[in-house]
Design goal:
With 417 residues, the chain is mostly helical. 71% of the residues lie in helices and 1% in strands. The longest helix has 34 residues.
């Protein structure tokens, strides 16, 4: 993929910074080993707290991230100036993260390389922006130790979080080819959750240790641990909700109305096409749920449609099935926007919202490439037939977006079944 050079560049920068930090620390030894042990232990505990993390969390080790940021922003400990510098910060963070990751690696659940590279670069960014200014005395001369100093730390943490969001979106864009703008919006939206708690805790720990010493570490970690627990429970509830929808969508397959895997394939392709067209956040979730449940109206039919291929039915029959499906969806408790997409998937595309246009196009593609009604020529033949239907049924931009997604061979993650 053409954008892979971005990923390689990020990996190379993180590796170079790590090598420099470890080499400097091994050559000169560690400054203030008590601080190193305390913050290293905090990061290790944070990494170990990945146990039980819900898959898909943006920050799977928030306590470790907060500890790393606090060490990068540490200028004093109990009133005594620190002297660890930027490279020691990187070395300690990497070494502690590796120690904390050992049990996870042993279980085959080690941290993703993308996350590790981002952690190294963002912590390095924070340390580079803070440590030289503090060590030189420039911060104290200009800001003192009052409100302006605290404001400086908060601004620096915001910039660090933005740096991490930009890196995460860039790497995901390079791997998937999805538009960068919506990916960045998703990352920035995620910062309002656990990301803001991580930044706030990092600043509080740095300030508390400067006054009270290392005993402040366990005290000020408790709020983040409780926040982490709350986010995990919320994420677990969301995962269960999504699995329930996926199970409900399989009812048509179990009853023999649709081909096995049809709903999941349509959901995966629809989500990929939605990202390609710039959907993100709630809009993407609505699209995914609607794609999973788009055929549920077939359960109201006396005689099943052959292979469940509604794309071959007359427009009136498609419309009736869509309305029946919308009525069923409204009884499940999912957002009303999902039912609207299901109800309007059979309308002329100029009258449909974008998610309905996507579901209709992708559903037709899957119907045309599988089952007894499949089109000669496979995927290329199906795309050509969709292009012939762009006068009324399928939006040309959606069809071409589907073609690009298929050409890349990459699908968005599907729900666990």
């Amino acid at each position: 993929m053409p954008g892979r050079w971005v990923v390689r560049a990020v990996y190379a920068a993180a590796a170079a910074l790590t090598a420099a930090g470890l080499a400097r620390t091994l050559w000169h030894g560690v400054d203030q080993p008590g601080n190193v042990l305390a913050f290293g232990a905090l990061i290790v505990v944070g990494e170990l707290a990945r146990w039980g993390a819900v898959a898909g969390e943006r920050e799977p080790a928030p306590l470790g991230a907060a500890g790393a940021l606090a060490y990068a922003l540490l200028g004093e400990c109990a009133g005594r100036a620190t002297s660890h510098g930027v490279l020691q910060v990187v070395a300690v963070v990497v070494a502690a993260a590796l120690v904390g990751a050992v049990p996870h690696v042993a279980r085959g659940r080690g941290p993703a390389l993308d996350h590790v590279a981002r952690r190294v670069l963002t912590v390095g960014f924070a340390a580079v922006c803070f440590q030289p200014l503090y060590t030189s005395g420039e911060l104290e001369r200009r800001l003192g130790h009052g409100a302006y100093y605290v404001l400086f730390l908060l601004v620096l943490l915001v910039l660090t979080a933005l740096c991490d969001a930009v890196l995460a979106a860039a790497m995901l864009h390079a791997r998937t080819g999805f538009p960068y703008g919506p990916l960045l919006r998703d990352e920035l939206r995620a910062l309002l959750g656990i990301g803001s708690a991580v930044c706030a805790t990092g600043a509080v720990i740095a300030l508390a240790v400067a006054v009270a010493g290392l005993w402040a570490l366990p005290v000020f970690c408790v709020p983040l641990l409780l926040t982490q627990l709350s986010f995990r429970r919320y994420a677990a509830v969301r995962t269960t909700y999504r699995q329930t929808i996926a199970s409900l969508a399989r009812a048509t397959e179990i009853a023999g109305y649709t081909q096995p895997g049809h709903a999941r394939r349509v959901a995966a392709l629809s989500t990929a096409v939605g990202r390609e067209l710039g959907l993100s956040g709630t809009d993407l979730t609505v699209l995914e749920y609607a794609a999973l449940m788009h055929d549920i109206g077939q359960l109201s039919l006396v005689d099943p449609v052959p292979d469940g291929a509604t794309a071959h039915l007359p427009a009136a029959d498609q419309r009736r099935i869509a309305l029946l499906g919308g009525a069923v969806v409204r009884q499940t408790g999912v957002p009303a926007a999902v039912a609207v997409v299901v109800e309007r998937q059979a309308d002329p595309y100029r009258e449909q919202p974008l998610p309905a246009r996507i579901v209709r196009t992708v559903n037709a593609y899957d119907d045309l490439t599988g089952g007894s009604g499949s089109t000669a020529g496979g995927a290329l033949g199906a795309l050509e037939e969709l292009r012939l239907g762009t006068g009324r049924d399928y939006q040309p931009e959606v069809v071409e977006s589907l073609a690009r997604v298929l050409a890349r061979g990459g699908l968005a993650p599907v729900l666990p079944g």
